[in-house]
Amino acid sequence: MTAGSTRAAFTALLRRDLLALWRRRSETLNPLLFAAMVTVLFPLALGPEADKLARVASGVVWVTVLLAGLLTLDSLFRTDAEDGSLDQIVASGQPLALLAFAKILAHWLGAGLPLALAGPLLASLLGLRADAAGTLAVSLALGTPLLSLIGAACAALTVGLRRSGILLALLVLPLAVPVLIFGAGAVEAAQTGANPFPPLVFLAAGLALALPLSPLVCAAALRLQAE
Amino acid sequence: MSTGAFLSPPEHLGGAPFPVRYLFMSESDLLPPLLAADRLEYARGGEPIFGPLDFALPGGRVLVVEGDNGAGKTTLVRMLAGLIQPTAGQLLWQGLPFADSVRPPGSVALLGHALGLKGELSALENLRFRIGLSGVRGGLSLHGALASVGLEGYEDVAVRTLSAGQRKRTALAAMLLSPASLWLMDEPYANLDRQGQVLVDRMLETHRARGGAVLLTSHGLIQPQVSGLSTTRLAVLRA
After folding, report:
1. Contacts of residue B158 in chain A, CB cutoff 8 Å?
2. Does the beta-carbon distance from B105 to A6 stay under 8 Å?
3. Which among A20, A83, A92 is the nearest to B134, CB-wise?
4. Is A93 left (phi over 0), alpha (psi -120 to 50) or beta?
5. Pick from B74, B173, B77: nearest CA to B117
6. CA distances from B223 to A122, B66, B198, B229, B230 (A)
7. What is the pLDDT of residues B217-229, one digit of tens each?
8. Does the predicted interface ipTM exceed a cut of 0.85?
9. CB contact at 8 A, A170 and A73
10. What does the pLDDT read at residue B48?
């Protein structure tokens, strides 16, 4: 007889979520397609002048990544709440914040990471210079996990509501504004020859703050919704 | 207004933490009961759902909670699983007030209305997640558990494509694998065919015989065929 260890529970949940993402991989790819389509809309709306597009490229990609990420947030805890696995997770008696972190990690690997990888590519389609695209890649690498952490806390808060789509967006977007400012600001700085380092440090600081905080918020919110 | 719990404690506890222990005079009963409720109440938004409720559930016992729809059976099961906090009264786990620190991970197995299975994963993958989450009882393999609930050959089929009864059986296999000493089962007979109901009875008997305790809810239509059975009724409090 083996009692469940916390590490085993963490890996089991991470594995299960990643496996479920893989089984629904066509669905998992949809946010990427969405991001690509939104990016394509900008040259159509703004006109094809290369200068203008290159100037807005980083901002466009950041907004696109943010919106595409929003699409994936609602199902983060909702599917578990609906099929009863959230009850199993809470009732298991394992540290809930850690298990919430496993879910956030799986969410970032399934949604945030692909978007972070695609972002620089989309930006160079809009004519962003290679060195600035490098800064964009770093800012997305720091910013997308931060967005996942912020989004997860909001998703956990709204999981008890029947439909939370728009409400979730209204909650997440204001909180995501600093991420957007520092993320796009770093690339802007790189483009104009300024030092892109300070905004990136702010992103890293935000990430360091959200890493322990967000799982705790998620755990408290999930316990409340179980009632 | 106390409902007819199978062991109502005396009016005053008389200094003894668990008067119940003196009513069973076998060796195992010298321990405090696995789970005990002490004037347990729950109200939602000021409206009483059930209680005050007293019961003691020692190892080797099966307690059936009966009640009509809306009597709060599911709420009670969720409370015992630690998902809901009582509004008054307290729950005791082996004599100590309920908390995660008192109840080690994997000591309670829950079979709810929602079975906690991922439709896109196979039965085997779902079970693998469960034993990772709360540990595993020795001497039983994943395949063995699925075979003993009659799902041999369905190991790698996505749970989504299984019938309601087969999904229930998958969840029962997770109960078999769980190292928990307390089983909480909300309507375990729902969706099951005759053989499935016999299977549940057999599972209850085995669990009971090895000293485990079971609390299950029922509309009262199907009576579990096991020894060590007692019944308590939840009254519908709302008019």
Report:
1. 23
2. yes
3. A92
4. left
5. B173
6. 64, 10, 11, 10, 11
7. 987 777 888 877 7
8. yes
9. no
10. 86
Considering only the beta carbons, identify the residue of B115, B120, B134 that sits closest to A84.
B115
Query: Is A15 in the B-facing interface, judged by CB distances under 8 Å?
Result: yes
Best residue of B76, B98, B118, B136 to probe chain A, by most A CBs closer than 10 Å: B118
pLDDT in tens, A77-119: 999 999 999 999 999 989 999 999 999 999 999 999 999 999 9
**Confidence band (pLDDT; 50, 70, 90) for A63?**
very high
Question: What does the DSSP 8-state code read for residue B229?
Answer: E
pLDDT of the residue at B133: 93
Query: What residues contact residue A198 under an 8 Å CB cut-off, 6+ apart?
Result: A189
Residues of chain B with pLDDT under 50: 1-25, 27, 239
Shortest alpha-carbon distance between residue B234 and chain A (Å): 20
Closest CA to B148 of B187, B206, B92: B206
Nearest CB among A5, A88, A227 relative to B110 is that of A88
pLDDT of B41-71, one tens digit each? Answer: 898 888 888 878 888 898 888 998 888 887 8
Q: Do A227 and B83 touch (CB under 8 A)?
A: yes
Token pair recorded at residue A125: 């389609």
**Which residues of chain B have a CB within 8 Å of the CB of A90?**
82-83
Spatial distance between the Cα atoms of B203 and A170, rounded to a whole number of angstroms: 49
The torsion angle over the Cα atoms of residues B229, B58, B180 and A90, rounded to 10 degrees, is: 100
Residues 6+ apart with CB under 8 A from B227: B205, B208
- The pTM for the full model equals 0.88
What domains sit in chain B, N to C, each tagged with a CATH number?
1-106+219-239 (3.40.50)
Nearest in space to A83 (alpha carbons), one of B120, B125, B190: B120
Check if A21 contacts B (Cβ < 8 Å). Answer: no
Mean pLDDT, to the nearest integer, of A206-218?
A: 96
